[in-house]
Every structure is written in C-alpha cells, then in structure tokens.
Specification:
- With 104 residues, the chain is of the alpha+beta class.
- It has one domain (17-103): Lrp/AsnC effector binding domain/regulation of amino acid metabolism (RAM) domain (Alpha-Beta Plaits), CATH 3.30.70.920.
- It is 21% helix and 46% strand.
- The strands form two sheets. A four-stranded antiparallel sheet has the order 3-4-2-5. Strands 1-6 form a two-stranded antiparallel ribbon.
- Strand 3 and strand 4 (57-63) form a beta hairpin.
- The model is unreliable at 1-15 (pLDDT under 50).
Amino acid sequence: MMKSLQFTVVRWCRDEGLSQAFVLISSEIGVESELLKELRRIENVKEAYAVYGVYDIIAKVEADTEEKLKEILTWKIRRLDKVRSIISMIVSSRPALTSQSHDN
C-alpha cells in the first residue's frame, strides 16, 4: 500500500527595501539571559531566543539597507561583551504570505 506524502511549497519573493539576517551567537557560559536582554535592547533586533546546540542564541535582525545591516552586525552585536563569535546569514529572499500544499 502506497502512503501519501504531504509537503508544503512556499513561494519566495524579495522584500525590496528591507534587509534581514539570522545571527547564530556563541556566548560565554552562563550569560545567555543577560546577553538576550542586551540584544533585545538593540532596535534592529526583532527577535532573539536562547537555543540548545552548538550556538547559544539565535537572533533575527532587520535594517533598511544591507550596508546598515552589516554595520549593526559588526559594530553592535559582534562587539557585545560576552559574545564569543557570531555566524550571520543575510537573507536573500523572504517567504511570500501564501503557500500551497501538495499530496504525492
């Protein structure tokens, strides 16, 4: 008997005029809560969460331009006390508000 597999296809589109990045942050041990508070005080940090795994925090950052986004990552986030390292992933496209489900 063949089972039906369901998956969702999300259309992607570029949101002109807004740059975003997801930032993986490695912090010193035991300072995650303090660092989250500092991150959330930065205006361009839209979301920040403590996570389990190789990295301690993931944050979503937005800015008007990619240049401004890079400036925030370099001069505001990377330079926070207790930040060991960051990996930043600048978004090249964003999901559209609609999605389609398909059965196979």
